[in-house]
Amino acid sequence: MASRAVVTGVGHYLPERIVPNAEFEATLDTSDEWIRTRSGIERRHFAAKDETTSDLATRAAEAALKDAGLTGEDLDAIVLATSTADLTFPSAATMVQARLGMTKGFAFDVQAVCAGFVYALSNANALILSGQAKRVLVIGAETFSRIMDWTDRSTCVLFGDGAGALVLEALNGNGTADDRGILSTDLNSDGRYKDLLYVDGGVSTQSTGHLRMQGNQVFRHAVDKLAKTAETALDKAGLNSGDVDWIVPHQANIRIIQGTAKKMGLPMENVVVTVQDHGNTSAASIPLALSVGKERGQIKPGDLIVTEAIGGGLAWGAVVLRW
Ligand code: ACO
Question: Is 102 in the pocket of ligand 1 (CB under 6 A)?
């Protein structure tokens, strides 16, 4: 017998406002055609002026809890991945905790940019395996529209806002790769690559700042590092890419998603793709894709899923789980 962190609920929330690529043509030297062919993005959602990351996170959390048949009071912990929290402190996670009516346990944010959800899942898994928590809500939520430089066509057309959440519960398995739940995780970072993707402001530099990215340099790292971390995570679980039902990748760019799948020897039929509708929602993109993938009828109980992501840091990683 072995304890496993099993997904028992999933949900997401997207802000009402949908912005098609064509909207950028009015203010930037860009086109729907360029954005579509270079990134695969067709539209994205932007939060309303008074809508914050914890608002999006709470809506996604409520949907995931409903799916699991639980309430906030049933939770032991909340781990929230974000780089765009409402306030410098307290954490967005504690704000969500209060709004869910959860008065015990603990809540904290994880910041690993686009790899944030993979890091959060890995942390939540460790909490469950070490017996520190039995039920953990894992959320990815972002309002990247707040850190866009609207004059920089090479970045502002790529990102969107949204939130997704999973409920993880400690359930017993056999300790084999047939078990439901998280089977392995693989986390990496290399701070030498800071300048490829960062925000040029923060508390200690006394400004909010804007996202800066050397897109083609990040691209160069992405496919190799993503395929390698996915294969490492599969190997740790005693599996290989032939066992995978779904790759649920970070949704940054369709060409990165296609390149990674190809490198892993898997066809696009085995990949959940939402980048066309959401853009890059950073830490929210994987739970959004898991939730939409389930809604579409793609992801079914028992399916073997590999999630993988890379982002600012650089930070990257993968999680293998059986749904
Ligand atoms: N419209 C029209 N032209 C544009 C636009 C635009 N919106 N943006 C850039 N261009 C131009 C550039 O200025 C450049 O012109 P030049 O050749 O005259 O200099 C040309 O298009 C090509 O630019 P590249 O940057 O080389 O284009 P590329 O094919 O690499 O695509 C992109 C750019 C989409 C950003 C791609 O590099 C990418 O997706 N990179 C990875 C992004 C990513 O995965 N980030 C990680 C996660 S994000 C996170 O952690 C927060």
Answer: no
Residue 139 tokens read as 């959320």
> What per-residue confidence (pLDDT) applies to 2?
83
Which of 10, 293, 297, 315 is CA-nearest to residue 139?
Answer: 10
**Tokens describing residue 293:** 């993938």
pLDDT tens, position by position, 159-212: 999 999 999 999 999 999 999 999 999 999 999 999 999 999 999 998 999 999
- In this structure, the residue with its CA closest to atom 19 of ligand 1 is 154
The fraction of the chain above a pLDDT of 90, given in percent, is 99
pLDDT in tens, 242-259: 999 999 999 999 999 999
Closest by CA position to 317, among listed 156, 81, 88, 107: 81
Average pLDDT, integer, range 41-70: 98
Q: How many whole angstroms from 211 Cα to the centroid of ligand 1?
A: 13
The closest residue, in CA terms, to atom 36 on ligand 1 is 215
Which amino acid does the sequence have at 138? V
Cα pseudo-dihedral 305, 179, 315, 294, rounded to 10: 30
What topology is assigned to 2-173 in CATH? Peroxisomal Thiolase; Chain A, domain 1 (3.40.47)
- 56 and 141 in contact (C-beta within 8 Å)? yes
CATH of 181-322, one of 3.30.360.10, 1.25.40.80, 3.40.47.10, 2.40.10.10: 3.40.47.10
- Using one digit for the tens of pLDDT, what is the confidence trace for 128-142? 999 999 999 999 999
| Residue from 114, 125, 210, 253 carrying the catalytic annotation | 114
